[in-house]
Amino acid sequence: MQTAAVKRLPISSWSMEDRPSDKMIELGTNALTDAELLSIVIGSGTHKASAVDIAKHLLADHQNNLHELGKAEFNEICETEGIGTSIACRIMAAIELGKRRQMAQMGDHPDLSTAFRVHQFMRPFCQDLKVEEAHLLLMNQNYRLIKHIKLSQGSITETLMDIRLIMKYAVLNNATILTVCHNHPSENTCPSRMDDEITKAIQNACKLMRIYFADHVIVCTENYYSYRENGKV
User: Fold this and answer.
1) Which of 28, 60, 119, 150 shows its CA 20 to 30 Å from the CA of 162?
2) Residue 206 belongs to what H/E stretch?
3) What sign has the CA pseudo-torsion 40, 44, 46, 50?
């Protein structure tokens, strides 16, 4: 006995929910849910699930939160059923484009004269990190960025700043002002005792080298801690 062939409905007869691309063209990108936008990146579904279903599963695997998805490693994205290497590459590329758009808004030589501006500049670099990283921002006398240098990468709870290396970079790049910053993956902006100690040591080294130590900023996703704003430098 032959099994009757399953008759597929034409795409034009699908509901708007199942046609995210058409929905975007008709109503604009703002009308789409996170899952619908992701489904367009995913492209096509499988015989078990539509692209929208796969997108929903992917979001569910990451707390239904795009910020958490942005932190995911390549292999973690591939763990969602229906997502292979090529789709994972497209998703990672879309996430990276979002970060680069944030960076592009700042320009090549942004004004980093306040802790808020430093946070805005550093956020795309730090927001998805699972471990601490230390960064150095070298500036001219007008607080315009000369060079951004990643100093080190540490563990979940700490990273290291080599003061001699910081001073070397400042001198080689003719910087007159510098700010150091690092992230807290815990999203807790409060500085540690070690943060206080390294800040004091950098401040002393800058005084010796006659370089203005503008700030030490602890960068979290939505907030920051500034030693300058808190009167500690």
Assistant:
1) 119
2) helix 193-209
3) positive
- What does DSSP say about strands 212-219 and 177-183: parallel, antiparallel, or unpaired? parallel
Q: Tens of pLDDT along 77-126? A: 999 999 999 999 999 999 889 888 877 766 778 999 999 999 999 999 99
Task: Extract the tokens encoding 69.
Answer: 């998805």
Q: Which residues make up the CATH 1.10.150 domain(s) of the chain?
A: 16-103
- Per run of 10 residues, the mean pLDDT along the chain (length 233 residues) is 47 61 88 91 86 92 89 91 93 89 76 96 90 96 96 78 95 97 94 95 96 97 96 95
- Global model pTM greater than 0.85: no
CA distance 203 to 92: 39
CATH 3.40.140.10 in the chain is located at 106-226
Q: What confidence score (pLDDT) does residue 10 get?
A: 43
Confirm if 125 and 70 have CB atoms less than 8 A apart.
no
- pLDDT, residue 219, reads 96
Q: What is the pLDDT of residue 3?
A: 47
**Distances from the Cα of 171 to the Cαs of 36, 108, 135, 152, in angstroms?**
50, 21, 16, 19
For domain 106-226, give the fold: Cytidine Deaminase; domain 2 (3.40.140)
CA dihedral 100, 103, 108, 110 (to 10 degrees): 180
